[in-house]
Structures are given as structure tokens and as C-alpha cells.
Amino acid sequence: MVETRKIVITVLFFIHLGYCEIPSYIKVCPRTHQNLSACITNSIEELKPRLINGIPELDVPGLEPLSLDSINIDSLGGGTRLATNITNIKVYGASEFTILKLVPTPTKKGYNFRFNVNIPRIRIAADYELDSKILFLDLKGSGPFNANISDYHFECIMKGHKVKKGENNHLEFDDMKCSLVIGEVSIFLDKLFEGNPTLAKATNDVINDNAHVLFDEIKPGVLKAVTGRFTEIANKITLSFKFEELFP
Fold this sequence. Notes:
Blueprint: H1 2-16, H2 36-51, E1 66-68, E2 71-77, E3 80-92, E4 98-106, E5 110-134, E6 137-165, E7 168-173, E8 177-181, E9 185-189, H3 197-209, H4 211-238, H5 243-246
Antiparallel strand pairs: 1-3, 2-3, 3-5, 4-5, 5-6, 6-7, 6-8, 6-9
């Protein structure tokens, strides 16, 4: 038993240092590749099905769903006060990303990547507690919160630098720096005035008239969740293998 435990600890130690063999589902892109951008893009595309639930053997977390911290919204304007507390937030759809453009740039410290990514549709499911005023109407209630966002498009830069683990070089990324543009936003508060469907619809209509204003409150949290998970996934992979193995 003691000997077996020593073997397990030794194996885990070497894996941690990046000595494990690169699995077949990770396509290596030589630095001298004639189209390095296309090679890396294709490699990421082939990984996408595994990123939905994560890659346990590399401790890579899944993209579905993403969790966000609670958000408080308090927006005023035009006789309307929309105040709500949104909790238990889950974001779905990040795994459907498409890389529109990727530019790798070797540096003295490692690699930088500039890229444009589009996510066709993101769905947010959460719980809400509403305490608002629309015209002369005081509104209070709670229930499921749902939002749909189309054409979630962001432009990012990831700066990677070599780090030493033992005698080996690995690539580690700083947090992504991104700008975000979105298309349409729709928001629906379920179980709102269940005894009065007309009032529930009117309230949801007002909320959707202000959907972009409301999403401006949610946007930093959503952007942080998506880009944070992408950065975490990238680091889990690049820190598991030697730099020279991933970029021979």
C-alpha cells in the first residue's frame, strides 16, 4: 500500500510539472507553420466539443453553464424606476463561440494573441426580486429571470509569458482584456402578476423597452464570467505541457 501511494504521488508530481504526453485531441502548431493563425484556430475548433463539460484529465472546467455573482439593478428614467436583485445567475451558450479572427504574435516573453469571437446567442437564467415603479404603479414580486442576447461579439487580447516549473518552460496567460458589442436583448420576468396577465405583459414590455439600459448593468458580470472562463481554460491547457511541446 505504501509503495502504491508513492507511485501515485510520483505520477501526479510529474503531471503537475508538465511531463504528461499531449493528448491526440490537442493539435500542436509548430511556430514555423506557414499559417499559424489557421492552425491554432482549427486546433481550438476541434477542442470545442470537449469544452462544453470540461476536460477532467487536465482539470479544465466546462463552459456550460457559467455562474455569475448576484447583480443589483436600479435604473431610473422617464417616470420609470426598475430596481431588481438578480441571483443564482447561470449563463448558457458560451460553448457555441466562433473565432472570426486570430492573430498570434511571438514575443520575447512568450506569445500574445489578438482575436475576435462571436457567440450567436447567450441565454441567462436566474431568479429576481423586483421592487420598482412604472408610472404610478408600485411593483413588487419575485420569480425566474430570463434574458436572451444575440450576436455577443468581443475583441480581445491575451498576453502569454513563459514561466518556469522545475526545469521546464510553460506558457501562462494574463486575464483577457476585451471590448464587447451585442445585438438584440430580450428580458422576461416569469411569474410576474400571475393573477393579472395583462399587467404582467405590460410590465415586461416596459422592461424590454429598457433592455439595453438594464443589460449595461449586467454586461460587466457576463463579460467577466465568459472571458474569465476562457482564460482559465487556456491556462489549464498551456500549464499542463511544456512550451516547446505546444509550440515546437
